[in-house]
Specification:
single chain, 3-stranded mixed β-sheet, 10 helices, about 220 residues, about 40% helix, globular, mainly alpha, two-stranded antiparallel ribbon
Length: about 220
């Protein structure tokens, strides 16, 4: 229980080195890539993915391969309703974008939540990302989703970067509350989790790996 308490308190600050030690990773660690429109391929058969030779011949990741579009479930855009800060959110992306405005523009923050009946983007992660993005304007139609006067909280991208903490809170809420999401994440075992799509530099999602480690510890303590 003391280990779980420490993990709960310091989870947002766990470094890359910590993840490497916890997962006993080496240069031959299995690697999975995902994004919101990933094709439905067997584990290790996706773009840039690979498994250890022995893993490809045994039953590791067998359950993962049985779940249709499991990579998409890992995406922040995957609709997996969860609750956080007393509100309901359709996706991790919705909560993250909303959090940029919680302090200085609470009314705008509310529009990202499923509890807002008048919102036009509380179920659409693409529009939510645009609404919370730099311009707040849909590039193709030039539709403005956010007034120029509505600015993000000053502390969101500075210091310890509250944005990173908010992202990890949302990830934990989703993967701890939604059964399918939890099953998929734990089924990735100790594989590196990378987000990558055409035109965007791939990056390893350490926050998601930290959430996985936390869920595993919780399951072992029950």
């Amino acid at each position: 229980h003391s280990l779980m308490l420490l993990f709960h308190v310091f989870s947002p600050y766990i470094t890359t080195a910590h993840i490497n030690r916890m997962a006993t990773e080496t240069s031959s660690t299995p690697r999975f890539y995902f994004f919101s429109r990933s094709r439905d391929a067997a584990p290790g058969k996706g773009t840039n993915e690979w498994l250890l030779p022995k893993v490809s011949t045994d039953k590791s990741y067998e359950r993962l391969g049985e779940i249709k579009h499991w990579r998409r479930v890992l995406s922040n855009f995957h609709v997996s309703e969860f609750q956080l800060k007393g509100k309901r959110w359709a996706t991790v992306e919705h909560y993250y974008q909303a959090s940029k405005f919680r302090k200085s523009n609470p009314a705008f923050y509310e529009r990202f939540s499923l509890d807002c009946a008048s919102s036009t983007w509380n179920r659409d992660p693409e529009r939510a990302k645009t609404a919370g993005g730099r311009s707040g304007v849909v590039s193709k139609t030039r539709e403005r989703l956010r007034a120029k006067s509505v600015l993000a909280d000053e502390d969101f991208f500075v210091g310890r970067c509250r944005g990173r903490l908010e992202m990890e809170r949302a990830l934990y809420a989703k993967f701890s509350q939604v059964a399918l999401a939890r099953e998929v994440l734990l089924a990735t075992e100790n594989a590196e989790l990378w987000h990558g799509t055409r035109g965007v530099k791939p990056h390893r999602v350490f926050a998601l790996e930290r959430v996985r480690a936390r869920l595993l510890l919780e399951s072992q303590s029950n």
